[in-house]
Amino acid sequence: MVILESLSWEVSVMLKLKNVVLVRDKKTILHIDDFQLAEGEMLAVIGPNGAGKSTLLKVLALLEEPTEGEIFFRGERVTGKNALSIRRRMAVVFQEPLLLNTTVFNNVAQGLKFRGVAGPEIERRVNYWLERLGISGLRNRTPLHLSGGEAQRVGLARAFVLEPEVIFLDEPFSALDFPTRVDLLEQLSELLANTGTTAVFVTHDFTEIPYLTGNVAVVDGGTVVYRGKLKEIMKEAASIPVIKHLLKPLQKSMLVQDYFQEV
Ligand SMILES: Nc1ncnc2c1ncn2[C@@H]1O[C@H](COP(=O)(O)OP(=O)(O)OP(=O)(O)O)[C@@H](O)[C@H]1O
Ligand SMILES: [Mg+2]
To answer: Among 14, 42, 100, 108, which residue is least crowded by beta carbons within 10 Å?
Structure first.
C-alpha cells in the first residue's frame, strides 16, 4: 500500500481497522492491516467490480463481522456487547434503497421508531428531512412507483433523519441517469458539509468523486492499494494498473466530448 498523505496526530480517528481479515467460502475477500477514517472525513472508496468495496463498507458499518482483527470506534474496541449501540450511531445507504411497502413517511420514520424516539419528535424530524430532500409531496406515496431518483432521496432521508455520526453510501447513485446523479451528488455534498457528518462513499466512477471530496482509497483484490488525494492519484495513474483500468472509460468519454466540440 502506498500512503500519500498520513493523517496528522491532531486529527481524531473515528473508525480504525487493525489486521482485519474476512474469509467467506474459504476465500479471503478482505485483508486490511491498518485503515483509519478521521472525524469529519469524507472518503471516496473506488475499485473495480469484485474488489471488496462493499465488503469493506459492511465491515466498517458493523454489518459484517470480520473473521480476524479488530475494529475501533472513537478509540473503543467494537465487541459483541457494544456493536449494536455503536451501529445505531451509523447509517447506510445502498444502491437499491431497501424500502418497505408502506408510505414514504413511514419509511423515513422507521429507524427513529426502532430507536424509541417519541412520536412528536419523529414527526418533526421526518418532516424536516422530507422537506430538505425535496420530497414532502411524496410523503403519502408508497415506494413501489417512485422513480429511481425519488427512491434514492427517500433512502438519503432515511439515513440523515437518524442524525448519524457516520454515514456509509454504497454506489447510491450508480443506477440513476446522469442529470439526476449530478443533482443528488451536489445535494449530498451540501448535506454532508452542513451536518459535518463523517462519510464513506463507494463508487466505481472517478467522475463522481470531485463532487464530494478529494480523499480517496483505492481498493483492489480485497485490500486498500492506494490512499491519498484524488489529484495525486490522477498524477500516478499511469503506473498503477487498477487506476489506469478505472480511468479508461473516462478517457473514452473525453473522446465523446471532443466529438461534440467539433460538431
Ligand atoms: N458472502 C460471501 N461469500 C462468498 N464470497 C463473497 C461474499 N461476499 C462477497 N464475496 C466475494 O468477495 C469479493 C468482493 O465482493 P464485494 O461485493 O465486496 O466487491 P465490490 O468491490 O463491492 O464489487 P461491485 O463493484 O461489483 O459491487 C467478490 O469476489 C465476491 O464474490
Ligand atoms: Mg459492491
So the answer is: 100
User: 173 C-alpha to center of ligand 1: Å?
Assistant: 19
User: Residue 201: what pLDDT?
Assistant: 98
Domain range holding 49? 2-89+166-174+199-262
Tell me how many domains the chain contains: 1
The helix (run of H) or strand (run of E) holding residue 17 is strand 13-24
- Ligand 1: atom nearest CA of 219 is 21
pTM exceeding 0.85: yes
Ligand in closest contact with the CA of 220: 1
In a domain, 132, yes or no: no
What pairing do the DSSP bridges indicate for beta strands 166-170 and 198-203? parallel
| pLDDT at position 261 | 67
Task: Give the end-to-end CA distance of the chain in Å, rounded to a whole number.
Answer: 44
Taking the centre of ligand 2 as the mean of its atom positions, its distance from the CA of residue 261, in whole angstroms, is 35
